[in-house]
Amino acid sequence: MTITLAKDTTTAAGRLTLRGIRVFIALEEIGSIAGTARSLGLSKSNVSQQISALETSVGAKLFDRTQKPISLTPAGQVLSVHAHRILATVSVAETSLAELSLSSLPVLNFAIIDDLDASITPELAASMQAQMPRCFINTFSGRSDQVNERFLAREADIAVTATLPDSLQSFQVQELAREQFVLVTAKDRYQAEIDWRGQLSTMPFVQYADAMPMGREVSTHLKRIGFQVPRRFSFEATRSVLATVAKTGGWTLSTPLAVLDADRFHDAIDILPLPFAGLSRHIYMVNRKDELGTLPGVLATQFRALLKDVLLENFVKLAPSLRDALTIAPDGPSSPD
User: What's the predicted TM-score (pTM) here?
Assistant: First the structure.
């Protein structure tokens, strides 16, 4: 009798394998052969072979490779639903095992919006290090869109962001906080009892750059309320925005967390409620389902506690009348609005 062993490709005797499903889901998320290969530690040819073998097994094309990024075909969309279910079911067992060895996790890649970089990241990193003493904690900070890009490219395991990825099918989302935008003006330059349009029209508007999600939100909101102001200054960093507000006698719209991250300029500014229709944003923690066990839930709880005990209290001291401008989400499962 002769026994032939098949190579470890996507299928074995015409059946799907867990490895093939993982390659399929990774390519669906990342959208490129090269990016999938990097994230899985495979060669590009290996990824292509896995997908080709999977397509042969199901008898249909699963990806349209002429698109950039690569997109699912109708057959791929059908398989996607089942693939995520299969992986989630298998991950129940894997999660239990992962929790046993989480303390020995070698690397955790963390991406966080830069509004929280100086105020929260060191505290959170110290807390994570205490829980996972053998883990190398690699942290990136940047704009929400940059944080999301790193997360979607699997360069981050956990993301803290103010904007969510377009597709949330395979992600767990936990709300951390909600904050109302506030009016920030140069010290003693604005009087709440006087018409706001007349005052702000004569003061330089210092805006966040349009490349930033916050900058686009503010620009859209001002157009929505019909308030057009000359474009004079544009910056990406809150420190630069607030410094220019103080220097020029100007104004801007910002958020409590962003203002707190630029404490050097607090003595030179006033923080006031918006004199027109409100604008708000949410802060979320995002991770891939079933990959880190209970760690994301633990971190979300700790993150909320830090926001409440450190940042909320500091903001109330800075602007006592604006306590409600920053609201910490309750612990427990949550979902985006």
Answer: 0.70
Question: Would strands 182-186 and 269-272 be described as parallel, antiparallel, or unpaired?
Answer: antiparallel
In 10 A of CB 109, how many CB atoms?
17
Q: In degrees to the nearest 10, what's the CA dihedral of 194, 198, 203, 207?
A: 100
Tokens 């996607």 belong to residue: 80
Rg (CA), the chain: 24
Per-residue pLDDT of the chain (337 residues; tens, 9 = 90+): 332 323 344 444 457 778 888 899 999 999 999 999 998 889 999 999 989 888 888 889 999 988 888 999 999 999 999 888 888 887 776 665 555 456 667 888 999 998 887 778 888 888 877 777 888 888 899 999 999 999 999 999 999 999 988 778 889 999 999 999 999 999 999 998 899 999 999 999 999 999 888 999 999 999 999 999 888 889 998 999 999 999 999 999 999 999 998 888 999 999 999 999 999 999 999 999 878 878 888 899 999 999 999 899 999 999 999 999 999 999 876 656 5
DSSP labels, 4-35: -PPPSSSEETTEE-HHHHHHHHHHHHH--HHH
Q: Which helix (H) or strand (E) holds 85?
A: helix 74-101
| 12 token code pair | 């074995």
The contacts of residue 244 (CB under 8 Å, 6+ apart) are 204, 206, 233, 235, 250
Backbone angles phi, psi at 86, to 5 degrees: -60, -50
d(Cα 337, Cα 295) in Å, to the nearest integer?
23
